[in-house]
Design goal:
The chain is of the alpha/beta class and about 250 residues long. The protein has helices at about 40-45, 70-75, 90-95, 110-120, 135-150, 165-185, 195-200, 225-230, and strands spanning about 1-10, 15-25, 30-35, 55-60, 65, 75-80, 155-160, 185-190, 205-210, 210-220, 235-240, 245. Bound molecules: adenosine-5'-triphosphate (ATP).
């Protein structure tokens, strides 16, 4: 579903990503982790073709990315950027914008129905009519997540989706992400700073440091030495109730 081969990207003579090779299939939830400035957001922007690679290959659904135009990519990929500015409109209208790649001119009944469904799933009914400018940071973040989920791409990119959310909402969003990936056979990439949530919800991990892939693979193969080296902090990986946990 998503494959990169020796992907390189530089900006103003600074190498931002170096030789990144990954290969994920539908049903995979890959957590992209790594210190600040490691290149996590840049990697997603390259896969979405918001920026252009210097060299290497990217293929989506076994087709080189060069064959996709922006409209096709916006149908294929639901993308939640790290930050989004709020523009005055109701929560419902904001979420409806996620259906834009599927609309010709105006939303149809199907678009409204899909919005309604996601509003219910994310418990946003009570905010439906509210102006997004009057939401808290966490409430707005949930609305943005709803907007990317209603887009219904086969590929889901979430860049730090649970920032600003309390623990209940963090778990709810990660549960929804994992369940949707399974039910709809999506290929999901999620940038996370919380290593325990990454280990709980992802089956694969991509660990970046200074633009280099220092680990990519099944989470069970991740070693504490690699994590400690990446974050320059002494971390321990333990097994608790059958799950890997990080302690520090
Ligand atoms: N527009 C830009 N101009 C110059 N440098 C940039 C620009 N965007 C990103 N960079 C640099 O590229 C590198 C990777 O940035 P990126 O945002 O991908 O990191 P990240 O791993 O997502 O970081 P964080 O965890 O802090 O969000 C950083 O060194 C950053 O300073």
């Amino acid at each position: 579903m998503i494959e990169t081969q020796k992907l390189n990207y530089s900006l103003k003579n600074k190498q931002i990503l170096k030789d990144i090779t990954i290969n994920s299939k539908s049903g995979d939830v890959t957590a992209i982790i790594g210190p600040n400035g490691a290149g996590k957001s840049t990697f997603l922007k390259l896969l979405r073709k918001f920026i252009q690679k210097d060299s290497g290959e990217i293929s989506l659904d076994n087709k080189q990315i060069e064959y996709f135009d922006n409209k096709q990519l916006s149908k294929l990929i639901s993308y939640l950027p790290q930050t989004t500015k709020a523009i005055a409109c109701s929560v419902e209208d904001c979420i409806l914008l996620g259906r834009k790649p599927h609309m010709r001119f105006f939303p149809k009944k199907e678009d409204y129905d899909k919005c309604e469904k996601i509003i219910n799933e994310l418990n946003l009914e009570k905010f439906k009519e509210k102006n997004v400018l009057k939401l808290s940071g966490g409430e707005f973040q949930k609305v943005l997540i709803a907007r990317s989920l209603v887009q219904e791409g086969n590929i889901l990119f979430l860049d730090e989706p649970i920032n600003h959310l309390d623990i209940k909402n963090q778990l709810e969003i990660m549960d929804i992400t994992k369940n949707m990936t399974k039910q709809k056979n999506l290929t999901t990439y999620v940038v996370l700073h919380d290593l325990n949530l990454a280990l709980k919800y992802a089956n694969k991990i991509l660990l970046l440091k200074n633009g280099e892939n220092i680990f990519y693979g099944e989470k069970k193969k991740l070693k504490e030495e690699i994590l400690s080296h990446a974050y320059e902090v002494e971390l321990k990986l333990i097994e608790f109730k059958g799950e890997k946990k990080v302690i520090y």
